[in-house]
Structures are given as structure tokens and as C-alpha cells.
Amino acid sequence: MNIDRNSTIADVYADPLGRDIIEKLLLQTGISAFWIRNPLVFRLRLKYFGWFFGKDFVDSLVELMNNSPDAPPVLDGPTPVTWWKRAVFYQVYPRSFADSNDDGIGDLPGILEKLPYLEDLGIDCVWLSPIFASPNKDMGYDISDYRSIMTEMGTVDDLRRLIAACHERGMRIILDLVANHTSDEHPWFQDALANPEGEHGDYYFLRDGDAETLPNNWTSFFSGPAWRRIGDKWVLHLFTPEQLDLNWQNPAVRREVADIVKFWLAEGIDGFRLDVINYISKREGLPNGNAIVGKLLGFTGIEHYFHGPHLHEYLAELRREGFTRSGVEPGQEAVGADASPVMIGETPGAGVEVGRLLTSPQRSEMDLIFSFDHLETSGHVRWDDYAYDLNFLKRYYIDYQSRLSSDDWMSLFFENHDNPRMISKVNPDPRFRTQLGKTLATILLTMRGTPFIFQGQEIGAINQAFPDETALRDVESLNILKAEGPGAWKKVLAGSRDHARVPMRWNRSENWGFTKGTPWIKAYDDSVGYSVAAQEHNPDSVLRYYRDLIQLRHSHPALSMGSIRFIDQKVKNYFAWFREQDGERWFIEVNLSGRPLRRRNRELPLTIVVGTTKERSAVMEPYEALVCKVS
Ligand code: ISL
Ligand code: CA
Q1: What are the residue boundaries of the Glycosyl hydrolase family 13 catalytic domain, all occurrences included (predicted)?
Q2: CA-atom Rg of the chain in angstroms
């Protein structure tokens, strides 16, 4: 539909992008959707909002929506069951997983040694955070050579061994492709600076202009303006000043990225996770961002690139030109030889509808995306010190699942290397740590979608009591402290990405068996029992629970592919659903709170197969979780 200033809020809501934007604004401000989804507001015309928010605000909305494709039609006939729908993924943060040569930094041979552990856990696909050559201004998310391995991580041969070992064990392996930006040490950028009129001059956003006038008002995600001054030029960086945005409008850049993908596919990898891939298309002319949108979202300029004018076109092209393995018949699925290796986009800011546009099989763009709207509850940001209410997660999943068509699929995750640990966010009381870890595992592994486990989650990892700034390593946290001073400590401690980046706890020896050297970042959680070694032999551990549940999911397709039906949706603190396929039915029920809860649905004929308790008594324990077979 064509949206203009005279369109109503109902029209905006009917547009996929429009609906996502409205919901994002509500989420951000903590305003209930009730205020929007009611007939009075629905009839309001967009232009009236100009009175409050300014004409620019309305114009940017209109411009955005006129760029968005229509919602995809549903396929005729059954949708293919691709391997990644049934798979359980595991994200390794290589720097902190296992250090084989005791230099304090995790590496590829370290990961190779731990493959049996991942296989035992039941992992189908390992995702490695960046391992390509990098000066590490943002821990590998600043790449200086896409075809070689970071010195401290090992060699291309180490990677080959790792790929082969994964495949021998029937596991797949995907890498992280950071192609929205490169490091300033990348030869393309070096050449672009030296020869602005040359081959690489147009690979980046280099702008002339005097030293006082920034090309626009966009801000960086890591504090300050998104422009860096080099010589007599400005250059765009949405992240650190050393991560320079690539100009995807240039077909040569797009060809380079597709070539990099093909290069690693030829080495046998099974796909990529694409870093901030929805930011690759910037609005022509790089216009100023709207001040109100900037204030609401915390960053200025976002509306000009989070769903840019050519995003879908570039992604479809990358799928076609990069993520297609020739010589393999489609549908012929084998580790290391998928006709269409998996393409997973990290898409901050994408909501349900944009997610569907990006992953619908009919549109041939990506397979899965990571949307982040569930990681903080409504009205909160990562830096807030607050208790995450799991009832929010419940509403999020009920809403998300109800809006997916039978062709759609979603990713499931609570943690990654950019976020604090979920157990700590929900309830840091140590008495609940194990139980809560299992509850979260239950939701993650029995929901409809593809689960992603972040290293340490399976042993109930929690946030770190970092003593002070010297314990931190992440540029984002350090920049905030630099810009806002020591008063920002509390907020940094609440949201720092370093919570997730401390070494994996393998056993009770020094540095948790991660290294015999000095770890590049130190952990500050001394609790006993939360290591792999301690949990492996404890049948009540979080680790054993993960293992049991993954195994169950693998042996019962109803739990991965089956339909999902939520019940008792309105009952607070109670989250329950059925999964069903080919006459096989499962019932999952969870107490979302740290208090006992009267059990519902006692009359159902159920057998507990995996759970935090052995009996369906009249009262559910705090954070109780049960996975039951319906007989
Ligand atoms: O942590 C954030 C900044 O506030 C997130 O917005 C994060 O930057 C965003 O999700 C993008 O993350 C990815 O790209 C970044 C990198 O620092 C993150 O580690 C990566 O996951 C830039 O490459
Ligand atoms: Ca090492």
C-alpha cells in the first residue's frame, strides 16, 4: 500500500514495516499497545502527528514505509524441512572458549579439543564468533583480512582441521562474516585513503569537508558522532572509529563480499552469521537523522539504514551470488555440501514483520534472523539495573508465533556475546540459579524455532562482579565510562558485554581450565559447581538437563517441527503450550516466577519426560519446568 501524510494509523499498521516501527516505539517507551490498537487512534491521520513530533518525523516514516515490500504470500504445499530447522546451534566466542597454547587467548586448536564435549551435548552446528585477521578494536568485529585467520587464533590449517573434525562428527560449522564494515587496517581502506580516485576510493563513505562541519548528525553505537576525521576527509563509522562502513551501493563491494563467502564455502563451511546485515544499505545522500527518533532509540540516524532502500535487493543478490554451492543438487543435504548454505542475519531493530520479509522462503534472502526485542522488557534498555519479568518473554513468544505463517521460522536465543547473562537478568538470587537455568533451557529447546545456545549458558553462567574499570575489556563499556565518568559504573555493570565474554569454566583448576597462562579477561564469579567438570557427573545439573532436552528434541520431531498451541495465556506467571505432529503430543509447562504457583490442567493424562521435578503436584515450585508426553 502507498503510505502518505494522509494515511491513517490503521494503514501504517497494515504495512509490515509500519507495524514494526509502531511496535518498536511502543516497546522502547514502555507504552501499552492498547493505546495504539484502538479504533480512535487507528483513525488518526499521520499528518496530525506532525503537530507533536514535527513534519520531518512524519516524512521519515512515510519515506521508510514506501520502501518496504509487501508481506510475502504463503507457499502452496508443504514447506521444506531444512536441516537448520531441526538443528541446535551453539555459539562459541573463540577468544574465551579454550586456550591450547596458554597465551591467555582462546584459539582454534582449543575449540578442536572441545568438540567431543559439544558432540556429547548434542550440538548440530557450531557458530564461531569472528576468527579472521583483526586488530581487535572490537574483538574481531573489525576485520583486516577476510581470507586469513587472526594470528592468536591459529592458522587456516587449524580451521581446516576443525571443519573436517566437525563434519566427521556429523556437526556443521558456520563462521561470522562482518561485512557492514572493515577495520581501518584493511588494505581496501588503506588504498582508499591513499588514492581516493582509485579502485577502492568508493568502497567507503569518504566525504570532503572542513574540519568543523560533520557530514551529518548520525551517532555511533559506541559513543560520539559516527564520523572520523582523517586528513582532510570525513569517513563514516557506525561502530568504533576503526570500523569503517562499507559502501554496498558500490557493486564492486557486493562482489567482494560474495567472493569471500564463496571462498570459505569452498573450504567446507556450512554457512555464515552476518553481522549487522540490515545496516548495509544507507539512504542516498546520507541525510540527517530525525532528532526525536534519535532520542527515542538512543542513536541518531538509524531510520536511514536499519531498513535501507536496497536492503532486500542486496541480500537476494548475496544469496544468489554467494550462498549457492554449485554442483550440489538442491535438497541434497549433507554436512559440508549444502546446495544453499545457511544464511543467518544479525538484524538489530528488525521486528516480526521485517523478520518475515527477510527470511520468507519465497523471497530467497536469508534463512534466519536475530531480532532483539525480547532481550529487555518494555521500556527498558540493557543499561538498566532491573529484574526481567519472564511474563514479557511469554507475551513476546505468543505474539511472535501467532504472526508467523506455516512457511516462516524463527531463531530462539536469550544470550550472546553482546548481552549479560539471562539468569542474572531475571533473578540473581543464587538459590534459584540451577532451577532458573533449566527453566530457560526448557523454553529455549521446546519452542517452535531454531535454538541457539551461547557458550556457558548450558552450565548456568551468570554475570560477573567486576570490581572496577580495569577488569573490563569491551570498547563499548570503556567508552561509556570515558564519556560519562565514574557515575556510569552502575549502568555499565548492569549491561556490559564483558559479562558474556569471560573464559568458559571447564573445571576447578586455575582459570577454570581455560588457560594456564593469564587470561585476556578475568572472571569474577567464584561459585562452586558451575563448571563443566562439576556438572558432567551431577544428574541434577543444568548441563545434564540441557543434554537430556536436546536429545529429546532430536528423537521427537514434534518438539522441533510440530505445531505450537499456547494455553491459559492470561494466567500470570504460568506459561504452557502443546507441541504436536503426526498424532504425537507434548505438553510443556513453566512457572515463570520465583514463587510457588497453583498448578492448572491437572486433569491432563501426562507423563513427565524431562523436568525440574518428578511429580505434577498441586503446587508448582518456583521456576518449575516440565516437558510431558500426552498419552
Ligand atoms: O551492543 C550493541 C551496541 O549497543 C548492539 O547494538 C550491537 O552493537 C549490535 O547488536 C551489533 O552487534 C554486532 O556488531 C557489532 C559488534 O560490536 C557486536 O559484537 C556484534 O555482535 C559491530 O560489528
Ligand atoms: Ca591461545
Answers
A1: 91-501
A2: 24
Distance CA 218, CA 207 (A): 14
Ligand 1 centroid to residue 562 C-alpha, Å: 33
Instruction: Give the distance between the most distant pair of CA atoms in the chain.
Output: 75
CA 312 – CA 257 distance, rounded (Å) = 16
pLDDT of residue 57: 85
Candidates 274, 278, 418: which one to mutate for ligand 1, based on the most atoms within 8 Å of Cβ? 418
How many angstroms separate the alpha carbon of residue 100 from the centre of ligand 2?
A: 5
pLDDT tens, position by position, 66-119: 878 887 877 777 778 899 999 999 999 999 999 999 999 999 999 999 999 999
pLDDT digits (tens, 9 = 90+) for 579-595: 999 999 999 999 999 99
Please determine, for residue 1, whether its predicted confidence score (pLDDT) is greater than 70.
no
Other residues' Cβ atoms within 10 Å of the Cβ of residue 84: 24
> What is the 102 CA–ligand 2 centroid distance (Å)?
5
443, pLDDT greater than 80: yes
Catalytic status, residue 119: no
Catalytic residue among 15, 138, 270, 275: 275
**Has residue 613 got a pLDDT over 80?**
yes
Alpha carbons 281 and 180: distance in angstroms, whole number: 9
Active site residue 346: yes
* Index of the ligand 1 atom closest to the CA of residue 418: 1
Ligand nearest to the CA of 503: 2
* pLDDT digits 0-9 by tens, 452-491: 999 999 999 999 999 999 999 999 999 999 999 999 999 9
Separation of CA 136 and ligand 2 centre (Å): 15
Q: What is the DSSP string of 182-243?
A: EETTSHHHHHHHH-TTSTTTTSB-EEE--TT--S---B-TTSSBSEEEETTEEEE-SSSTTE
Ligand nearest to the CA of 517: 2
Total-model pTM:
0.97
